[in-house]
Amino acid sequence: MTRKKILVTGGAGFIGGNFVQYMVNKYPQFDIYNLDLLTYAGDLTKHRDIESKGNYFFVKGDIADRDIIMSLFEKEKFDYVAHFAAESHVDRSINEPEIFVRTNVLGTQVLLDAAKKIGVTKFVHVSTDEVYGELDFDPTTFFTEESPLQPNSPYSASKASSDFMVRSYHETFGLPVNITRCSNNYGPFHFPEKLIPLTISRVLNDEKVPVYGVGKNVRDWLHVLDHCAAIDLVLHEGVNGEVYNVGGHNERTNLDVVKTIISTLGKSEELIEFVTDRLGHDKRYAIDPTKLERLGWKPTYTFETGIAQTIQWYLDNKWWWEKIISGDYPNYFKKQYSLLKF
Q1: What pLDDT sits at residue 271?
Q2: Where do the domains of the chain lie, and which CATH numbers do they carry?
Q3: Is 269 assigned a catalytic role?
Q4: Which of 26, 114, 126, 131 is an S-S bond match for 160, by CB 3.0 to 4.6 Å?
Protein backbone atom coordinates (compact mmCIF):
# COMPACT_ATOMS: atom_id res chain seq x y z
CA MET A 1 0.00 0.00 0.00
CA THR A 2 1.40 3.40 -1.01
CA ARG A 3 1.97 5.73 1.93
CA LYS A 4 0.09 9.02 1.78
CA LYS A 5 2.22 12.16 1.64
CA ILE A 6 1.18 15.39 3.37
CA LEU A 7 3.03 18.64 2.72
CA VAL A 8 2.88 21.21 5.52
CA THR A 9 4.14 24.64 4.48
CA GLY A 10 5.47 26.88 7.23
CA GLY A 11 6.08 23.86 9.44
CA ALA A 12 8.90 25.57 11.34
CA GLY A 13 6.61 28.34 12.53
CA PHE A 14 4.19 28.45 15.43
CA ILE A 15 0.91 26.98 14.16
CA GLY A 16 2.43 24.98 11.32
CA GLY A 17 5.07 23.61 13.67
CA ASN A 18 2.50 22.40 16.14
CA PHE A 19 0.55 20.86 13.26
CA VAL A 20 3.63 19.00 12.01
CA GLN A 21 4.16 17.46 15.44
CA TYR A 22 0.46 16.64 15.76
CA MET A 23 0.39 14.85 12.39
CA VAL A 24 3.71 13.03 12.74
CA ASN A 25 2.63 11.58 16.07
CA LYS A 26 -1.01 10.85 15.14
CA TYR A 27 -0.42 9.33 11.71
CA PRO A 28 2.71 7.11 11.62
CA GLN A 29 1.29 5.64 8.40
CA PHE A 30 1.57 9.04 6.65
CA ASP A 31 4.77 10.77 5.52
CA ILE A 32 4.77 14.37 6.75
CA TYR A 33 6.90 16.88 4.82
CA ASN A 34 7.76 20.19 6.48
CA LEU A 35 8.55 22.94 3.95
CA ASP A 36 9.91 26.15 5.44
CA LEU A 37 12.29 28.93 4.40
CA LEU A 38 13.51 29.38 8.00
CA THR A 39 13.11 33.15 8.15
CA TYR A 40 13.39 34.97 11.48
CA ALA A 41 10.41 33.19 13.09
CA GLY A 42 11.19 29.76 11.65
CA ASP A 43 12.85 27.39 14.07
CA LEU A 44 13.63 23.67 13.82
CA THR A 45 14.71 23.08 17.40
CA LYS A 46 11.03 22.67 18.27
CA HIS A 47 11.08 19.45 16.24
CA ARG A 48 14.00 17.80 18.02
CA ASP A 49 11.65 15.13 19.44
CA ILE A 50 10.34 14.08 16.02
CA GLU A 51 13.26 14.70 13.66
CA SER A 52 14.47 11.10 13.96
CA LYS A 53 11.07 9.60 13.19
CA GLY A 54 10.80 7.79 9.89
CA ASN A 55 7.68 9.63 8.74
CA TYR A 56 9.08 13.17 9.17
CA PHE A 57 10.97 15.02 6.43
CA PHE A 58 12.22 18.61 6.27
CA VAL A 59 12.69 20.61 3.08
CA LYS A 60 14.09 24.14 3.11
CA GLY A 61 12.50 26.30 0.44
CA ASP A 62 10.68 29.48 -0.49
CA ILE A 63 7.02 28.98 -1.45
CA ALA A 64 7.34 31.89 -3.90
CA ASP A 65 10.22 30.20 -5.77
CA ARG A 66 8.40 28.55 -8.66
CA ASP A 67 11.29 26.33 -9.78
CA ILE A 68 11.82 24.86 -6.31
CA ILE A 69 8.12 24.30 -5.64
CA MET A 70 7.35 22.73 -9.01
CA SER A 71 10.34 20.40 -8.73
CA LEU A 72 9.37 19.36 -5.21
CA PHE A 73 5.75 18.61 -6.13
CA GLU A 74 6.71 16.70 -9.26
CA LYS A 75 9.22 14.61 -7.32
CA GLU A 76 7.13 13.78 -4.24
CA LYS A 77 3.58 13.74 -5.69
CA PHE A 78 1.92 14.97 -2.50
CA ASP A 79 -1.59 13.76 -1.71
CA TYR A 80 -2.49 16.61 0.66
CA VAL A 81 -1.26 20.16 1.26
CA ALA A 82 -1.81 22.06 4.52
CA HIS A 83 -0.70 25.61 3.73
CA PHE A 84 0.35 27.58 6.84
CA ALA A 85 3.36 29.47 5.47
CA ALA A 86 2.82 33.22 5.72
CA GLU A 87 4.16 36.47 6.98
CA SER A 88 1.79 37.07 9.88
CA HIS A 89 2.92 39.87 12.18
CA VAL A 90 0.65 42.89 11.72
CA ASP A 91 3.18 45.44 12.98
CA ARG A 92 5.75 44.24 10.46
CA SER A 93 3.19 44.43 7.64
CA ILE A 94 2.70 48.12 8.36
CA ASN A 95 6.43 48.71 7.96
CA GLU A 96 7.17 46.22 5.16
CA PRO A 97 3.99 45.40 3.22
CA GLU A 98 5.79 44.21 0.08
CA ILE A 99 7.18 41.17 1.89
CA PHE A 100 3.64 40.16 2.82
CA VAL A 101 2.37 40.43 -0.74
CA ARG A 102 5.22 38.28 -2.07
CA THR A 103 4.90 35.49 0.46
CA ASN A 104 1.19 35.47 1.18
CA VAL A 105 -0.17 36.14 -2.30
CA LEU A 106 2.46 35.10 -4.83
CA GLY A 107 3.62 32.17 -2.69
CA THR A 108 0.08 30.85 -2.39
CA GLN A 109 -0.46 31.15 -6.13
CA VAL A 110 2.74 29.18 -6.85
CA LEU A 111 1.62 26.41 -4.48
CA LEU A 112 -1.80 26.29 -6.15
CA ASP A 113 -0.20 25.90 -9.58
CA ALA A 114 1.93 23.03 -8.30
CA ALA A 115 -1.02 21.36 -6.57
CA LYS A 116 -3.10 21.66 -9.73
CA LYS A 117 -0.35 20.20 -11.88
CA ILE A 118 0.05 16.99 -9.89
CA GLY A 119 -3.62 16.69 -8.87
CA VAL A 120 -3.64 16.74 -5.07
CA THR A 121 -6.48 15.15 -3.12
CA LYS A 122 -6.96 18.27 -0.96
CA PHE A 123 -5.39 21.71 -0.54
CA VAL A 124 -6.22 23.37 2.80
CA HIS A 125 -5.39 27.06 3.00
CA VAL A 126 -5.03 28.31 6.57
CA SER A 127 -6.21 31.89 6.80
CA THR A 128 -7.29 34.27 9.57
CA ASP A 129 -10.38 35.98 10.98
CA GLU A 130 -8.63 39.29 10.33
CA VAL A 131 -9.74 39.15 6.69
CA TYR A 132 -13.26 40.00 7.91
CA GLY A 133 -12.16 43.33 9.34
CA GLU A 134 -13.49 44.27 12.74
CA LEU A 135 -16.62 43.89 14.83
CA ASP A 136 -18.08 46.35 17.29
CA PHE A 137 -18.27 45.47 20.97
CA ASP A 138 -21.77 43.97 20.74
CA PRO A 139 -21.28 40.46 22.22
CA THR A 140 -24.10 39.03 20.08
CA THR A 141 -22.30 39.68 16.77
CA PHE A 142 -19.86 37.19 15.23
CA PHE A 143 -18.00 36.55 12.00
CA THR A 144 -19.53 33.75 9.92
CA GLU A 145 -18.31 32.22 6.70
CA GLU A 146 -20.73 34.53 4.87
CA SER A 147 -19.33 37.73 6.42
CA PRO A 148 -17.84 40.11 3.82
CA LEU A 149 -14.06 40.39 3.64
CA GLN A 150 -13.00 43.86 4.80
CA PRO A 151 -9.29 43.66 5.76
CA ASN A 152 -7.82 46.66 7.54
CA SER A 153 -4.06 46.01 7.57
CA PRO A 154 -1.55 45.06 4.88
CA TYR A 155 -1.25 41.66 6.57
CA SER A 156 -4.98 40.91 6.51
CA ALA A 157 -5.27 42.34 2.98
CA SER A 158 -2.59 39.95 1.77
CA LYS A 159 -4.37 37.02 3.44
CA ALA A 160 -7.72 38.03 1.93
CA SER A 161 -6.03 38.19 -1.47
CA SER A 162 -4.66 34.67 -1.04
CA ASP A 163 -8.12 33.46 0.06
CA PHE A 164 -9.59 34.76 -3.18
CA MET A 165 -6.81 33.08 -5.16
CA VAL A 166 -7.52 29.73 -3.49
CA ARG A 167 -11.25 30.09 -4.16
CA SER A 168 -10.59 30.92 -7.80
CA TYR A 169 -8.57 27.74 -8.34
CA HIS A 170 -11.53 25.71 -7.10
CA GLU A 171 -14.08 27.59 -9.20
CA THR A 172 -11.95 27.78 -12.34
CA PHE A 173 -9.93 24.57 -12.29
CA GLY A 174 -11.88 22.34 -9.92
CA LEU A 175 -8.98 22.08 -7.46
CA PRO A 176 -10.22 20.41 -4.25
CA VAL A 177 -9.64 23.14 -1.67
CA ASN A 178 -10.80 24.35 1.71
CA ILE A 179 -10.14 27.66 3.42
CA THR A 180 -10.04 27.87 7.21
CA ARG A 181 -10.15 31.15 9.10
CA CYS A 182 -9.03 31.01 12.69
CA SER A 183 -9.15 33.34 15.66
CA ASN A 184 -6.00 34.27 17.62
CA ASN A 185 -3.91 31.20 18.46
CA TYR A 186 -1.79 30.67 21.55
CA GLY A 187 0.15 27.78 23.06
CA PRO A 188 3.60 26.12 22.94
CA PHE A 189 6.31 27.59 20.68
CA HIS A 190 4.49 30.88 20.12
CA PHE A 191 7.14 33.32 18.91
CA PRO A 192 7.93 35.97 21.57
CA GLU A 193 6.86 38.97 19.47
CA LYS A 194 3.16 38.08 20.00
CA LEU A 195 1.04 39.24 22.92
CA ILE A 196 0.89 36.18 25.17
CA PRO A 197 4.51 34.96 24.95
CA LEU A 198 5.78 38.54 24.98
CA THR A 199 3.86 39.16 28.19
CA ILE A 200 5.05 35.92 29.81
CA SER A 201 8.71 36.55 28.98
CA ARG A 202 8.63 40.17 30.12
CA VAL A 203 6.75 39.46 33.33
CA LEU A 204 9.20 36.70 34.23
CA ASN A 205 12.02 39.21 33.72
CA ASP A 206 10.17 41.98 35.63
CA GLU A 207 10.12 44.12 32.48
CA LYS A 208 7.39 46.48 31.34
CA VAL A 209 4.62 44.88 29.26
CA PRO A 210 3.41 47.15 26.41
CA VAL A 211 -0.36 47.30 25.91
CA TYR A 212 -1.79 49.21 22.95
CA GLY A 213 -4.14 52.12 23.69
CA VAL A 214 -6.15 51.30 26.79
CA GLY A 215 -6.14 47.55 26.17
CA LYS A 216 -9.83 47.19 25.32
CA ASN A 217 -9.37 45.47 21.94
CA VAL A 218 -11.08 42.06 22.06
CA ARG A 219 -9.79 38.80 20.58
CA ASP A 220 -11.22 35.28 20.53
CA TRP A 221 -8.44 32.99 21.75
CA LEU A 222 -7.95 29.51 20.29
CA HIS A 223 -5.46 27.00 21.67
CA VAL A 224 -3.12 25.89 18.91
CA LEU A 225 -3.77 22.17 19.54
CA ASP A 226 -7.50 22.71 19.09
CA HIS A 227 -6.63 24.44 15.82
CA CYS A 228 -4.49 21.48 14.75
CA ALA A 229 -7.39 19.10 15.34
CA ALA A 230 -9.64 21.36 13.27
CA ILE A 231 -7.24 21.41 10.30
CA ASP A 232 -6.85 17.65 10.50
CA LEU A 233 -10.62 17.24 10.29
CA VAL A 234 -10.99 19.66 7.38
CA LEU A 235 -8.11 18.00 5.54
CA HIS A 236 -9.93 14.66 5.63
CA GLU A 237 -13.62 15.56 5.85
CA GLY A 238 -14.01 19.12 4.55
CA VAL A 239 -16.46 19.58 1.67
CA ASN A 240 -14.52 20.77 -1.36
CA GLY A 241 -14.71 24.51 -1.94
CA GLU A 242 -16.05 25.31 1.51
CA VAL A 243 -14.78 27.81 4.08
CA TYR A 244 -14.67 26.84 7.77
CA ASN A 245 -14.25 29.28 10.65
CA VAL A 246 -12.25 28.03 13.65
CA GLY A 247 -12.94 29.86 16.91
CA GLY A 248 -12.32 29.11 20.56
CA HIS A 249 -15.36 30.71 22.26
CA ASN A 250 -12.86 32.58 24.43
CA GLU A 251 -13.21 36.34 23.97
CA ARG A 252 -10.93 38.46 26.15
CA THR A 253 -9.64 42.03 26.00
CA ASN A 254 -5.90 42.40 25.57
CA LEU A 255 -5.75 43.99 29.01
CA ASP A 256 -7.57 41.02 30.58
CA VAL A 257 -5.11 38.62 28.96
CA VAL A 258 -2.13 40.55 30.29
CA LYS A 259 -3.63 40.81 33.78
CA THR A 260 -4.36 37.07 33.84
CA ILE A 261 -0.74 36.26 33.04
CA ILE A 262 0.57 38.74 35.61
CA SER A 263 -1.72 37.33 38.28
CA THR A 264 -0.83 33.71 37.49
CA LEU A 265 2.88 34.51 37.79
CA GLY A 266 2.33 36.42 41.04
CA LYS A 267 3.63 39.74 39.74
CA SER A 268 2.42 43.34 40.00
CA GLU A 269 0.14 45.06 37.49
CA GLU A 270 2.55 48.00 37.72
CA LEU A 271 4.45 46.19 34.96
CA ILE A 272 1.71 47.21 32.49
CA GLU A 273 2.71 50.10 30.24
CA PHE A 274 0.10 51.62 27.92
CA VAL A 275 1.63 52.64 24.60
CA THR A 276 0.47 54.47 21.47
CA ASP A 277 -2.16 52.40 19.68
CA ARG A 278 -1.33 50.44 16.55
CA LEU A 279 -2.35 51.98 13.20
CA GLY A 280 -5.64 50.51 12.01
CA HIS A 281 -6.05 48.46 15.18
CA ASP A 282 -9.27 46.41 14.85
CA LYS A 283 -11.56 46.67 17.86
CA ARG A 284 -12.87 43.14 18.11
CA TYR A 285 -12.73 39.73 16.45
CA ALA A 286 -15.16 36.94 17.29
CA ILE A 287 -15.75 33.73 15.34
CA ASP A 288 -18.88 31.61 14.97
CA PRO A 289 -17.52 28.06 14.41
CA THR A 290 -20.94 26.38 14.11
CA LYS A 291 -20.28 25.11 10.59
CA LEU A 292 -17.08 23.35 11.66
CA GLU A 293 -18.76 22.00 14.78
CA ARG A 294 -21.38 20.38 12.56
CA LEU A 295 -18.50 18.65 10.77
CA GLY A 296 -17.47 17.12 14.10
CA TRP A 297 -15.05 19.53 15.81
CA LYS A 298 -15.23 21.27 19.17
CA PRO A 299 -12.50 23.06 21.13
CA THR A 300 -11.24 21.13 24.15
CA TYR A 301 -9.47 24.02 25.90
CA THR A 302 -11.17 26.79 27.81
CA PHE A 303 -9.10 29.94 28.03
CA GLU A 304 -8.49 29.25 31.73
CA THR A 305 -7.10 25.76 31.15
CA GLY A 306 -5.24 26.77 28.00
CA ILE A 307 -3.51 29.84 29.40
CA ALA A 308 -2.45 27.95 32.54
CA GLN A 309 -0.95 25.19 30.38
CA THR A 310 0.74 27.73 28.14
CA ILE A 311 2.29 29.67 31.02
CA GLN A 312 3.58 26.41 32.49
CA TRP A 313 5.04 25.43 29.12
CA TYR A 314 7.02 28.68 28.98
CA LEU A 315 8.25 28.10 32.52
CA ASP A 316 9.35 24.57 31.60
CA ASN A 317 10.92 25.48 28.24
CA LYS A 318 13.07 28.51 28.85
CA TRP A 319 15.73 26.80 26.74
CA TRP A 320 13.65 27.67 23.66
CA TRP A 321 12.54 31.27 24.16
CA GLU A 322 15.41 32.69 26.23
CA LYS A 323 17.85 32.20 23.34
CA ILE A 324 15.52 34.24 21.13
CA ILE A 325 15.23 37.30 23.35
CA SER A 326 18.86 37.12 24.49
CA GLY A 327 20.15 37.61 20.95
CA ASP A 328 21.32 34.04 20.29
CA TYR A 329 19.09 34.12 17.25
CA PRO A 330 18.96 35.85 13.81
CA ASN A 331 19.99 39.49 13.95
CA TYR A 332 16.62 40.79 12.76
CA PHE A 333 14.86 39.74 15.93
CA LYS A 334 17.78 40.71 18.13
CA LYS A 335 17.53 44.28 16.84
CA GLN A 336 13.76 44.50 16.71
CA TYR A 337 12.67 42.80 19.94
CA SER A 338 12.47 46.04 21.90
CA LEU A 339 10.33 47.61 19.17
CA LEU A 340 7.85 44.85 18.42
CA LYS A 341 4.77 44.70 20.60
CA PHE A 342 2.24 42.04 19.55
Answers
A1: 96
A2: 5-185+222-250+281-302 (3.40.50.720)
A3: no
A4: 131
